[in-house]
Design a protein that fits this description.
The protein has about 600 residues and is α+β, with helices and mostly antiparallel strands. It folds into 4 domains: about 180 residues, no CATH class; about 130 residues, Chitinase A, domain 3; about 100 residues, Roll (Chitinase A, domain 3), CATH 3.10.50; about 100 residues, Chitinase A, domain 3, CATH 3.10.50.40. The protein is built from 20 helices and 19 strands. Strands 3, 15, 16, 17 and 18 form a 5-stranded antiparallel sheet that branches. Strands 5, 10, 11, 12 and 13 form a 5-stranded antiparallel sheet that branches. Helix 1 runs parallel beside helix 7, helix 2 packs across helix 3 and helix 8 packs across helix 20. About 50% of the residues lie in helices and about 20% in strands.
Length: about 600
Amino acid sequence: MALMNRMRESMKTILLILVVAFILTIIVDWGMGGFQSNQPRGIIAEVDGQQIHYEEFYSRYQNELAAYREQQGGDPEGYQLQQLETRVFDNLVQQRLLDRVVKQVQLNASDQEIIEEIFNNPPAELRQNQAFQDSTGQFDMQAYQAAINNPGAGAFWSQVEDYLRLTLPMRKLDNLLRVTAVVTDEEARIEYMKRNLKAKVEYVLVPVTEFSASAAAPSDDEIKAYHSKHEADYKEAEKRAIDYVMLEFKPTKADSDAVDQLANELLNDARGGQDFAELARIHSQDPGSAQNGGDLGYFARGAMVKPFEDAAFNHAVGQIVGPVISQFGIHIIKVVDKMKEDGQEKVKASHILLKYEMSPRTREALQEEASYIAETAKEQGLKNVAAAEKVEVKRSEPFAAGGFIPGVGMESRINNWIFRNEVGTVSDVLYAEKGYFVIEVAEIKKEHIKSWIEVKDQIVSKLKNEKAMALAKEKGQKIADQAKAGGSLESAALSGGLKVQQTDQFAFNTYINSIGREPRFAGAAFGLPIGAISAPIEGSRGYYVLKVLERTPMNDSDFEAQKESIRAQLMQRKEQAIFGQWYTALKEKADITDNRKDYL
């Protein structure tokens, strides 16, 4: 009976863990990736004719939001909120696509398979649940079997069966994709070499800048020909500009004065003998220390902002200092202890942090003002209302759909509204991280190919650089030929007015001092015989000619010791890449209608 009660108590938790674990398996292991007050009804997306209703999206979103609040202790805002919305949407689209594949290849789970799983291969989430563990925390098969045979547990096992009926087909699909991933001994060997072998080279850099000034400027005909050949590079998506009024989220003088008054009251209370830790737990707005009574532990100089540090180090143990103003707000500080560690002075302190923030009354007044501007502007125009209300109207630079809005920020929902309305349309009040916005669509620049005149400077710069690089390669070839003939890279470099430089030892995949990340350079260093002179090697700054001075030999015994570990890592990487490529192709072929702009 006790086991049954524990199962009932933990049923929701177990099933939530099962579902979350399944979703995480798809998203993490396979490598994938404010609403209106009333919930609109409708279709937020269609995937190959399968509809995703807004209600389903909203329900899943609320679950994700609850999980976020549980983990972070607050609501997501701005970009974090947009990421959460996108993740929920992408997961629903993925679910529809994978469901269709499962049905097409007939991967449904049979009753016998589900029975086999429940009896002989219980999910890890059940194995790890306390209801099925002994006193040492180990999975107790006898307790598990007793639960299976308990006639009163039918509802629980029915839900586990539903979960397995959903996840087993996906697991089969996962296994089908994974079985195509193979890592050979040679691949593992090459990866070991990339990680462990090191090379040292001397080299000459023929810099492209040596020829930048002398490279002939292209003619108009060359520019036009290049533009015609690369028109796709100069396609500019539709852009829009907006006029907007921002009512910024910032405290008024009255708000700041109220914070100052509270700080002085708390300072007097603390100095008057009230429990500092309790005051911090109630009033401090520092999420990292408030729950610990404001305790910051020991810290040395340089660990805190200067006003805080000066106050803590310049007062005696037991003193309560404040108010101290820093970039974070206003602090009441209690110096708890001082010590020296390894010759370094350290202070232990607690604090109460109060932030200069808008009061609820100020926010309400700001929202009322924004609402008045929005409603009136729909009749009279934003600029007219703003002039009457003595608020500033700003004009943004043109921007593309889905991206950054100049002056507003990364606000996808606002961006969506802008790109589904016509010139002259005025928004309702729009909430963003910076404040309340009222926006009017001011200009629409349709998608077009930029003319060669518009991009002339870019093309001139590109063509001149290509000519300069060609001259650098030509000089590099002469140096390489001379070095091969005479055996000295240094003398060949000097004849060209350049000097030989030498690297430290470097591995294939690492940053090379004074060079950076140059894959072709590293490839030559590990591919050429020791002492050989390379052909000119193109880099980001010009052309390199190099000579391999030394290279660590292959350690076969160490490779054998690491081979299986490397193979496992490469296998995981390959499996993720296989799923990623397969899913990308699946998604590209699908007919997906995204209606988020109408809801978010």
